[in-house]
Amino acid sequence: MNRVTVRINGSEYNLKGEEREEYLHKVAGYVDKKISDILKKNNRLSISDASVLAAVNVVDELLKCEFDKESLHKQVDEAKKNQIILQTQVEDLKKHIKNLEEYNGELQSNLEMTRNGEYVKQIEDGNKSLNEELEILKENAKKYLKERNDLKSQNKELKFQVQSSKYKVMDLQNRLIENQIDLVKIKKKENPLLNVNP
């Protein structure tokens, strides 16, 4: 238990409390300033009247702080909900990117297959005349070239989607970090004693 002697409006008072002496002096200084401000505005007031008005002002500030605290609690709850939503979106986008990358791998594998062995197979399987084989090869070449171009287009589109999804993930992660920073700021506003250096 700490005991300190403080001066409020020229009179000395003994205060006891579990808090540090610096804190008790700070409380007394706050009350002293409130009473002094009221007496400066109306020097005809008695000390007891000034003390009552100072108490009313302090309670008014306390009630406003309580209202602010409730409002901050609501903001904190809303920020937590938004954080959960953003985290879910980030996870969903990561899964989507993984699926797109797997699909892109399959398309590239198919593209390699069309480049390598398919034309040779057509020649080896046939017992047709050279002209017939040449016609088949031409048709197959056209078909495979078309497939190859289609695969390239799909591959290009998928790469774009993967890149776009990565940017979305980065954006969501940045928004998540900003949300967490806002949450810390709100918590500091909610408990101003965290900002006081004792």
TrEMBL record:
Pfam families: ZapA
Main function: Activator of cell division through the inhibition of FtsZ GTPase activity, therefore promoting FtsZ assembly into bundles of protofilaments necessary for the formation of the division Z ring. It is recruited early at mid-cell but it is not essential for cell division.
GO biological process, one term: cell division
Cell location: Cytoplasm
Cited InterPro entries: Bac_CellDiv_Activator (IPR053712), Cell_div_ZapA-like (IPR007838), Cell_div_ZapA-like_sf (IPR036192)
Keywords, in A-Z order: Cell cycle, Cell division, Coiled coil, Cytoplasm, Septation
Source organism (scientific name): Clostridium aestuarii
Record note on quaternary structure: Homodimer. Interacts with FtsZ.
Major localization listed first in the record, in broad terms: cytoplasm
Name the record gives this protein: Cell division protein ZapA
Coiled coil residues, start to end: 76-161
